[in-house]
Amino acid sequence: MIKKVDHIGIAVTSIQNSLPFYEATLGMKLIGEEEVPSQLVKVAFLDAGNQKIELLEPTSSDSPVAKFIEKRGEGIHHVAYKVENIAARIEELKTQGINMIDHTPRLGAGGAAIAFLHPKSTGGTLTELCEKKGNDVK
Ligand code: CMX
């Protein structure tokens, strides 16, 4: 089912304040930044080799990321796995009793089709399926 880890999402209060650690200290290249209005977040993707790091900054206090930071503080928010044929993968997971947050794929950052699995169904880690046409990293 899983092709690879696509990215790790990290909740931050400010992308601008967090970037120097990833760019200057760790030496990662910034791939791009964009706003995802449907998720009430601004994101920045960094190249971590064969995977990416996604910094997530809430744009509203109603954002799931704002609630996460309020409850748990900044830090790892989700792990996203690259899949093919995401709609079929969602159906497979449902038949295995997984509680899907998204029952159909929706549009995520970078034009990817995404769907989240509820952390209560995954042993505590918010998990994302991600399907993107074309090649990895970028
Ligand atoms: N990882 C692990 N557990 C999490 C979590 C996360 N990221 N976010 C919430 N939880 C846990 C909470 O700690 C809480 O656990 P307890 O009941 O044991 O206290 C439980 O899930 C419910 O949390 P809540 O604060 O009451 O929040 P909600 O139920 O309202 O929402 C969730 C939780 C996961 C359903 C919601 O955050 C969601 O739909 N997330 C998917 C969408 C998303 O995160 N979008 C932002 C990223 C978008 C992108 O990458 O493009």
Automatic annotation (TrEMBL):
InterPro entries reported in the protein's UniProt record: Glyas_Bleomycin-R_OHBP_Dase, Glyoxalase_1_CS, MeMalonyl-CoA_epimerase, MMCE/EMCE_epimerase, VOC_core
Residue ranges constituting the VOC domain according to the UniProt record: 4-132
Gene Ontology MF term list: methylmalonyl-CoA epimerase activity
Pfam families, alphabetized: Glyoxalase_4 (PF13669)
Keywords, ordered alphabetically: Isomerase, Metal-binding
Keyword Repressor included in the entry's annotation: no
UniProt-listed Enzyme Commission number(s): 5.1.99.1
Keyword set includes Zinc-finger: no
NCBIfam families membership: metmalonyl_epim
Family: Belongs to the methylmalonyl-CoA epimerase family.
Alphabetical list of PANTHER family matching this protein: METHYLMALONYL-COA EPIMERASE (PTHR43048), METHYLMALONYL-COA EPIMERASE, MITOCHONDRIAL (PTHR43048:SF3)
Protein name in UniProt: Methylmalonyl-CoA epimerase
The organism of origin for this protein: Metabacillus sediminis
